[in-house]
Amino acid sequence: MAKIELRQIRKSYDRYVAVENLDLDIIDGEFLVMLGPSGCGKTTTLNMIAGLDYPSQGQILFDGRDVTAEPPHGRNVAMVFQSSLLYPHLTVRKNIEASLRHSKLSKAERAQRIADAARMLELEPMLDKLPSQMSGGQRQRAATAKAIVREPACFLLDEPLSALDAALRLSLRSELVNLQKRLGTTAVFVTHDQVEAMTMGDRIAVMSKGNLEQIGTPDEIYNQPASLFVATFLGSPPMNVVAGAISNGVFHAGPVAIDLAGRGIPNGPVSLGVRPQHVTVTAPDAPGAIPVTVYALEHLGRESVVIGDDATGNKLRALVDPGFHARIGDRLGIAPEAGACFFFGADGRRIAVSSSPA
Ligand code: ATP
């Protein structure tokens, strides 16, 4: 078990800054997901926690102990990668055993550890198979067994599911979380997939361009996004964003007017964000509705998404009943529910939640 603290971490490669001002407290026993688009610094951060890379500035503490300059083996962490390495010429049993080669365990203790790991990951029937005789999911489970058999203080997982097909990803998602909860081992899981993050994380750390945008539970990140970046990165279909302005306490964007008086918001440009489940589809000229031209209708089974272009070419999405009918080119209106709107300032930070329509 380990509590991990990152203090004012900065990592630069020559003049390129990959991670900056990063303060992160990873709670003992939690499943923390680091989420962000490609190149935002997730892997760099994970590698610094592992000791595979070293910060240019800042400190890393494991249970209060400064490990910033320590090599990986001084930290007792186990890494699982996207295409985790199994020795192709060794059976699963030998592959798992290879993780224990530097340990001081007796032969009997090793055998017990391997048996426990194989049981947890349901690999018992496969222990004598070679990696080439197994499916992708089985190989990933074998790689996970290699990681858990050492009983590390922390698991570091770098997109371990992204090379697998969709069905397998889905089942391994819950398997991994279930295993982590049974073991109680701190886990840091890197992904760019927001569904993985929402379904797996006790908390999610959202990163953008080398900075931590927000850290919180999936519920906090989704329902109280700190920035436009977080708001639009999480949620499917994505949040609608409408550019507008505050004038005397009222938000205006074309026909949309939402009274935010009493919130002390200064005049100036502001973006409105509203999720597709919080808009109403109306006639194009209905009061408070943004006129759109239907661009696509996507059927999701239990519901559909109608996508429309507004006058500026901005795409707006509305969740509708599966029986909803519209043709490409039809004219509709999309009206945000005032009480469900988020507002973001010119700096991208969230500034207020609306009260009532003007
Ligand atoms: P992905 O999801 O694509 O792996 P990521 O969020 O994990 O992205 P990192 O791999 O941490 O991103 O990389 C962050 C930035 O640092 C990238 O722009 C990358 O090009 C740069 N970078 C990473 N490693 C090095 C290196 N060894 N030398 C120079 N630049 C690097």
Describe the structure.
The chain is α+β, with helices and mostly antiparallel strands and 358 residues long. The protein has helices at residues 42-50, 92-98, 107-120, 136-148, 166-183, 194-200, 218-223, 228-233; strands at residues 4-13, 16-26, 31-35, 57-62, 65-66, 77-80, 154-158, 186-191, 203-208, 211-216, 240-247, 250-253, 256-259, 268-274, 279-282, 290-299, 304-309, 315-320, 331-336, 342-344, 350-353, 356-357. It folds into 2 domains: 4-225, P-loop containing nucleotide triphosphate hydrolases (Rossmann fold), CATH 3.40.50; 237-357, Beta Barrel (OB fold (Dihydrolipoamide Acetyltransferase, E2P)), CATH 2.40.50.140. The chain is built from 8 helices and 22 strands. It has a 7-stranded antiparallel sheet. The protein has a 6-stranded mixed sheet with strand order 6-7-8-3-9-10, with helices on both faces. The chain has a 5-stranded antiparallel sheet with strand order 15-19-16-17-18, with no helix packed on it. Mean pLDDT is 92; it is low at 354-358. Bound molecules: adenosine-5'-triphosphate.
